[in-house]
């Protein structure tokens, strides 16, 4: 089947294998449920997300959503989305199994496998934009990040940084779309790599714009963090056009620099953890943490493990430990952990600013 060949690996591991073209849809659904879980978790620690994340557009006259309302609406949306996407995923899986079992090019199975990923992606993105007006608003102004109020800036940051975690699934989805709708000439050969640069360029532009507006030099360092991911993409491109001259050690060094840079920034700047014993030392407020210390240690360890997952898999068959494309799933989970501690640090910051006033 053109563009949707089912590998021998897939034939032997149906329990955990999802076609690359379907992966972005599965991960989007997982991300929706993870957001609902994050709200529930933070609620158990009396952390009010409505004070940290803006839920209404600036020109809306309606009252902001409370944390309880956000939690209820997110669960309702996750259930509604699941009722649509899960049956479509099952239909696609049945078509895959049918194609493998019969080893025949069934036109019906071929059509379903080819078109279902596009249909699901349109449904998911359409429902998110339609049901969450603040996301719709921020997507339209993604490059014109608003630095005030702080709760509005947090929406932009959460949205843009989460997009960077979907880079690899989007690459796979772009390759699938290129095969499905575009010709196979050289013009579209590296279209997926251009897509992979889009989330990085969005964050780089946002950092530069914020620096221009506020003259905070740390934003230039943050931009440099995202720039450190570009050489990795360039190495992938070079490995495609000059496979004989490609040196894997070079890309490994770039990956190491990027992993170290992003890990330190996550912990020190985003989570504001500057002490392993006191979590946040030299802080005016005695209530500078929300969670038990063990949770912070677990968060740092998990972030470290996923950031350097590529090292653990270097000498493994097919560069995997658990299952095919495992890192894409682990990265979405890592991002949810990042969101938890990012919201917690923002909550502490906003609360302390209000106390000082």
From TrEMBL:
Claim: Transmembrane is one of the keywords in the record: yes
Keyword check for Metal-binding: no
EXS domain mapped to chain residues: 183-357
Segments passing through the bilayer: 14-35, 81-102, 108-129, 219-239, 290-312
Membrane topology: Multi-pass membrane protein
GO cellular component: cytoplasm; membrane
Xref: InterPro entries: EXS_C
Keywords attached to this entry: Membrane, Transmembrane, Transmembrane helix
A Pfam family that the UniProt record links to this protein: EXS
Main location: membrane
Location of this chain's protein in the cell: Membrane
Coiled-coil positions: none
PANTHER family cross-referenced by the UniProt entry: PROTEIN ERD1 HOMOLOG 2 (PTHR10783:SF46), XENOTROPIC AND POLYTROPIC RETROVIRUS RECEPTOR 1-RELATED (PTHR10783)
The protein's name in its UniProt record: EXS domain-containing protein
Organism: Torulaspora globosa
């Amino acid at each position: 089947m053109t563009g949707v060949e089912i590998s021998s690996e897939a034939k032997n591991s149906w329990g955990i294998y999802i076609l690359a073209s379907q992966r972005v849809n599965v991960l989007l659904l997982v991300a929706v449920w993870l957001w609902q879980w994050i709200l529930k978790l933070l609620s158990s620690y009396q952390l009010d997300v409505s004070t940290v994340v803006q839920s209404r557009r600036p020109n809306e006259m309606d009252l902001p959503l409370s944390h309880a309302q956000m939690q209820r609406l997110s669960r309702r949306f996750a259930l509604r989305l699941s009722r649509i996407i899960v049956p479509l995923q099952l239909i696609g899986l049945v078509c895959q199994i049918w194609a493998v079992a019969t080893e025949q090019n069934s036109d019906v199975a071929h059509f379903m496998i080819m078109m279902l990923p596009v249909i699901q992606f349109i449904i998911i993105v359409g429902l998110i934009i339609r049901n969450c007006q603040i996301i719709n608003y921020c997507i339209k102004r993604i490059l014109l990040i608003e630095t005030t109020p702080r709760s509005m800036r947090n929406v932009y940051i959460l949205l843009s940084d989460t997009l960077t975690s979907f880079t690899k699934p989007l690459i796979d989805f772009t390759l699938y779309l290129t095969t499905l709708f575009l010709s196979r000439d050289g013009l579209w050969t590296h279209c997926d790599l251009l897509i992979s640069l889009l989330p990085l360029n969005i964050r780089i532009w946002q950092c530069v714009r914020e620096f221009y507006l506020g003259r905070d030099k740390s934003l230039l360092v943050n931009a440099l963090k995202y720039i450190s991911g570009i050489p990795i993409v360039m190495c992938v491109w070079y490995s495609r056009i000059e496979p004989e001259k490609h040196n894997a050690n070079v890309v490994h060094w770039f990956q190491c620099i990027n992993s170290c840079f992003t890990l330190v920034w996550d912990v020190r700047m985003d989570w504001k953890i500057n002490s392993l014993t006191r979590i946040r030392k030299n802080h005016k407020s005695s209530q500078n943490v929300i969670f038990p210390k063990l949770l912070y240690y677990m968060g740092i360890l998990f972030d470290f493990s996923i950031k350097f997952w590529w090292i653990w898999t270097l000498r493994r068959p097919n560069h995997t430990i658990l299952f095919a494309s495992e890192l894409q799933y682990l990265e979405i989970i890592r991002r949810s952990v990042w969101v938890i501690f990012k919201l917690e640090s923002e909550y502490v910051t906003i609360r302390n600013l209000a106390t000082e006033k």
